[in-house]
């Protein structure tokens, strides 16, 4: 090594391989001199003390509930080599019931993606490999969580005494920032560990929060190909397997085929309701809520179901037992980019017309963003389908198992009708088509239910007497 001090090295001296000093090209007095020294020290430090990395963890796809065993990978938000932190979005997967965003449980680097886009991922199998950072807590992945989703909901508010709640500091901080008691949250991780997803799901149920939509990449529309090219492309089009919601519709409609449907049609004069909505519309908009006719239809259905609870029931596959549902979770058939989905308004019997409108606004926003989840799509007890929104008048709606009744609402038309004095007047008329499970619902019951529902809508002031 050179024995000369840095002060002895002149502008022309430098250290040769033989140990003698010769002149360097840069003097310490040169403006770049100090920076070169710093860079050399940093390189030496990194060589002697390399950055410590933690183990590579296989991040497995956990059970997302409803007995789902496989999902389709719709989009990756990361690629191999990307650095991720806890709670960062990794990918979006779609089951036959809902779309779910998978988030990271670790801080580290993505080392491997196990699936391509549109591939089928299995619950309990590795989704990605993550090289964790040294010192970060590694959560042992479970194979498959076998606890049913309903069992988790039943125990949501149970507090296990004498048992310390397991959660990482970041999860505890998230709970504290949102004033959430960890004892009220059911963990889906190993040994009941509370994950970030559990906190967000709990918060969404409490506040009805809407998750921000995933940004979509706008691609220019392709120009129309020539006729010959279009015919050739159609002829060469490959067979497309059914996945996700399309596959779910096959299962649902196949099960519906076993139900003996009974149909009933009627018409409703909505003239008074049209006038009432015109008065209330600006009031609702002032509160930031769009008020359509559907909240009135749902509330009238809920009030009618109180008198005819058999229409808010379900029957087992062998048709040996009828289960009467206390909650009126009224579904709304919704045409989305993902296909026909039926989210539902929970506990409509406890909500006002304005609160139902708020719930519908939220469901429509989630549907437009493609973010309707299992919580919104499961648990329905009765369904209304608004075919009038696409210009329909009549329909023969198909019952959604395990429900036993459904209604299709046509468009509102201005038609001539006679009033009580025999004079011809302009009336706002809507056609309604009902389908019911004829194994447990007879025609008279369906007719009486429809008459009561119609009476509420033709005289909306009568609903005030029964509102809760």
Automatic annotation (TrEMBL):
Reactions it catalyzes: N(6)-[(R)-dihydrolipoyl]-L-lysyl-[protein] + 2-methylpropanoyl-CoA = N(6)-[(R)-S(8)-2-methylpropanoyldihydrolipoyl]-L-lysyl-[protein] + CoA
TM region positions: 32-51
Key words of the record: Acetylation, Acyltransferase, Lipoyl, Membrane, Mitochondrion, Phosphoprotein, Transferase, Transit peptide, Transmembrane, Transmembrane helix
The Peripheral subunit-binding (PSBD) domain, residue ranges: 166-203
Family annotation (InterPro entries): 2-oxoA_DH_lipoyl-BS, 2-oxoacid_DH_actylTfrase, 2-oxoacid_DH_E2_comp, Biotin_lipoyl, CAT-like_dom_sf, E3-bd_dom_sf, PSBD, Single_hybrid_motif
Top-level division of the source organism's lineage: Eukaryota
Record keyword Magnesium present: no
Keyword Acyltransferase: yes
Top EC class for this record: transferase
SUPFAM superfamilies assigned: CoA-dependent acyltransferases (SSF52777), Peripheral subunit-binding domain of 2-oxo acid dehydrogenase complex (SSF47005), Single hybrid motif (SSF51230)
Enzyme Commission no: 2.3.1.-
UniProt GO cellular component terms: cytosol; mitochondrial matrix
Domain Lipoyl-binding: 56-131
Example of a GO MF term: lipoic acid binding
Protein's cellular compartments: Mitochondrion matrix
Swiss-Prot/TrEMBL cofactor(s): (R)-lipoate
PANTHER family: DIHYDROLIPOAMIDE ACETYLTRANSFERASE COMPONENT OF PYRUVATE DEHYDROGENASE COMPLEX, LIPOAMIDE ACYLTRANSFERASE COMPONENT OF BRANCHED-CHAIN ALPHA-KETO ACID DEHYDROGENASE COMPLEX, MITOCHONDRIAL
Membership in a protein family: Belongs to the 2-oxoacid dehydrogenase family.
Function (record text): The branched-chain alpha-keto dehydrogenase complex catalyzes the overall conversion of alpha-keto acids to acyl-CoA and CO(2). It contains multiple copies of three enzymatic components: branched-chain alpha-keto acid decarboxylase (E1), lipoamide acyltransferase (E2) and lipoamide dehydrogenase (E3). Within this complex, the catalytic function of this enzyme is to accept, and to transfer to coenzyme A, acyl groups that are generated by the branched-chain alpha-keto acid decarboxylase component.
Full protein name: Dihydrolipoamide acetyltransferase component of pyruvate dehydrogenase complex
Lineage: Eukaryota, Metazoa, Chordata, Craniata, Vertebrata
Gene: DBT
């Amino acid at each position: 090594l050179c024995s000369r001090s840095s002060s002895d090295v002149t502008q022309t001296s430098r250290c040769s391989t033989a140990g003698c000093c010769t002149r360097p090209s840069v003097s310490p007095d040169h403006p770049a001199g100090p920076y070169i020294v710093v860079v050399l020290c940093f390189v030496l430090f990194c060589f002697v003390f390399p950055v410590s990395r933690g183990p590579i963890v296989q991040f497995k796809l956990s059970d997302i509930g409803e007995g789902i065993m496989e999902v389709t990978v719709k989009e990756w938000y990361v690629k191999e080599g990307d650095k991720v932190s806890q709670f960062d979005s990794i990918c979006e997967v779609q089951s036959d019931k809902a779309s779910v965003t998978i988030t990271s449980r670790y801080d580290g680097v993505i080392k491997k993606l196990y699936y391509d886009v549109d591939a089928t991922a299995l619950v309990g199998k590795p989704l990605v490999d993550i090289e964790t950072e040294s010192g970060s807590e590694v959560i042992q992945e479970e194979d498959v969580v076998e606890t049913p989703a309903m069992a988790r909901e039943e125990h949501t508010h149970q507090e296990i005494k004498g048992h310390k709640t397991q959660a990482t500091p970041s999860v505890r901080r998230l709970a504290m920032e949102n004033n959430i008691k960890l004892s009220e949250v059911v963990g889906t991780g190993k040994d009941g560990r509370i994950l970030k997803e559990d906190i967000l799901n709990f918060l969404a149920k409490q506040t009805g929060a809407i998750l921000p939509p995933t940004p979509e990449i706008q691609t220019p529309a392709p120009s129309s190909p020539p006729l010959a090219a279009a015919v050739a492309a159609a002829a060469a089009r490959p067979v497309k397997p059914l996945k996700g919601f399309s596959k779910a519709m096959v299962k649902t409609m196949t099960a519906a085929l076993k139900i003996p449907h009974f149909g009933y049609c009627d018409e409703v004069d909505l003239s008074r309701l049209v006038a009432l909505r015109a008065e209330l519309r600006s009031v609702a908009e002032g509160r930031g809520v769009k008020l359509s006719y559907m909240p009135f239809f749902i509330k009238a259905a809920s009030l009618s179901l109180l008198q005819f609870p058999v229409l808010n029931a379900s029957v087992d596959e062998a048709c040996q037992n009828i289960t009467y549902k206390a909650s009126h979770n009224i579904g709304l058939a919704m045409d989305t980019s993902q296909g026909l989905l039926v989210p539902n308004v929970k506990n409509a019997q406890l909500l006002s017309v304005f609160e139902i409108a708020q719930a519908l606004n939220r469901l429509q926003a989630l549907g437009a963003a493609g973010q309707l989840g299992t919580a919104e799509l499961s648990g329905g007890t009765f369904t209304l389908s608004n075919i009038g929104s696409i210009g329909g008048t009549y329909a023969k709606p198909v019952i959604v198992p395990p429900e036993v009744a459904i209604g299709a609402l046509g468009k509102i038309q201005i038609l001539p009708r006679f009033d009580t004095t025999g004079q011809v007047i302009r009336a706002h008329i809507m056609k309604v088509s009902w389908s019911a499970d004829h194994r447990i619902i007879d025609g008279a019951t369906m007719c009486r239910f429809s008459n009561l529902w119609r009476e509420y809508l033709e005289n909306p002031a009568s609903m005030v007497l029964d509102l809760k």
